[in-house]
Amino acid sequence: MYVRRSAAVLAAAVVIGSASPAVAADSSPSASPSPSRAYPAELYGGTDPTYDGVWRQSLVLLAQDTVGVRPAKGAVDWLLGQQCASGAFAPYRADAGEDCDAKTPVDTNSTAAAVQALAALGGHDAATGKAVSWLKSVQNKDGGWGYAAGGASDTNSTSVVIGALAAVGEKPASVVKDGQSPYGALDGLALPCKGDGAGAFAFQPDKKGTLVANADATAAGVLGALGKGLVVRPGTAASDASCADGGDRTPRQTAANGAAYLTRALAKDGYLKSALPGAEDQPDYGNTADAVVALAARSGADAARKPLRWLEQNSAKWAEQSGPAAYAQLIFAAHATGTDPRDFGGANLVEQLNATGPAPQKAAAEQEEKGKKDDGDNPFGAWWYIGVFLVVGIGIGFLLSGRNKGGRQ
After folding, report:
1. 20 to 30 Å CA-CA from 50: which of 42, 43, 232, 263?
2. In this structure, how many other beta carbons lie within 10 angstroms of the beta carbon of residue 68?
3. How far are the Cα atoms of 44, 294, 318 from residue 315, in angstroms, in the given order?
4. 400 sits in which H/E element
5. What per-residue confidence (pLDDT) applies to 270?
């Protein structure tokens, strides 16, 4: 949703300091890993992590937790080690032993993604607390967030931060700056229901201050307006393709308008197209997966059925080429629609994701099954232990009874 473009484009965005990792979606395969450079064994994926290391690690850990897999301890420790003393995360710090300084390129997206992952895993309140404090400290006056601290607010960054706030139990509406909440910032980036792109979200206003519909930003904006993070449960709101404006538009209405835009955009082909110059006719797999999550979060699985089926039939090669974050996105889409990620169009997304990095600890379900098997292997079984306690209890009862009788004689 937020990091799905080439390293070169993302690097330029960081240098400019005014763009989120999701200005444009990139469906192209990830660059091949450099044979002359070794990356941390605890990090998922084999491509250069300079611009997305923390992001993709966070998505992987969150996806594993979502499907009941206990991530490798080293993978979690690596993510924790990437945090600066301020609480912020940079996309990647090759030497985490060195202190962060003013030149360390920390950003809101990496920080918010890490918060969502660590909060889901549990037991990392100190780390998430520091991260959220930093996010609050760089909130813009309009209530939103940009990719870099101080950068103009954008839909994608504001939405992923909302997800982080919700993950730690904060109420996003109560996190305000100069009286403005994150929801107000999103509303200011939402298009009206008349004209091109009706109901969509823009990433940011263009140079002329005009809001231009952006499907990637819209998928993010729908989740943000709903107060949701990357992992969602199916929603229950009515699904339709209508858009409605009002004098006092609520966040839920803004989300409904965005969902209506996505529904219309997906109606013909069942997938969204790339926004990259020269690739306009190519499918954007990642953005389509994000749209599935957004539609399901608002209206349930049926609202996302068409793009979900398209992904099941067409996303395998893209995911294999793009790596761990892509598998995580597909797992989020499966989870949001109640689809089995271990049989996603015939593919086991969980196994494929786990194979991109350090072997995780055994899944909770597998541990439970092992416990049942251990009981079954015992020739006496669990009932033998129950019987022992019953006998012991009866014996104690007789002793007490005899003692009482002896006292009355």
Report:
1. 232
2. 14
3. 20, 18, 5
4. helix 382-408
5. 97
The residues, any chain, with a CB within 8 Å of residue 399's CB and separated by 6 or more, are: none
Q: Beta-strand (E) ranges in 217-296? A: none
Half-sphere exposure of 334 (CA within 13 A, CB side): 25
Domain ranges of the chain: 7-377, 378-409
| Tokens describing residue 380 | 């006496």
CA–CA separation, 14 and 258 (whole Å): 27
Q: Which residues contact 1 (CB under 8 A, 6 or more apart)?
A: 22, 156, 160, 216, 219, 220, 230, 286, 287, 290, 329
pLDDT tens digits for range 276-308: 888 878 999 999 999 999 999 999 999 999 999
Which amino acid, residue 181? S
Whose structure tokens read 């979060």?
297
CATH match of 7-377 with 3.40.1190.20: no
Length in residues, the chain: 409
Q: Which residues of 288-319 are buried (b: 16+ CB within 10 A; e: fewer)?
A: bbbbbbbbbbbbbbebbbbbbebbbeebbebb
402 vs 62, 380, 390, CA distance in Å?
60, 31, 18
pLDDT digits (tens, 9 = 90+) for 341-375: 999 999 999 999 999 999 999 755 555 555 555 55
Burial of 158 (0-12, 13-18, 19+ CB in 10 A): buried
pTM of the model: 0.83
Residue 348 has a pLDDT of 98
Sheet strands (E) in 177-260? none
Task: State the Cα–Cα distance between residues 8 and 150, nearest whole angstrom.
Answer: 22
Contacts of 235 (CB under 8 A, 6+ apart): 226, 296, 297, 298, 299, 300
Residues of the chain with pLDDT under 70: 1-37, 247, 363-409
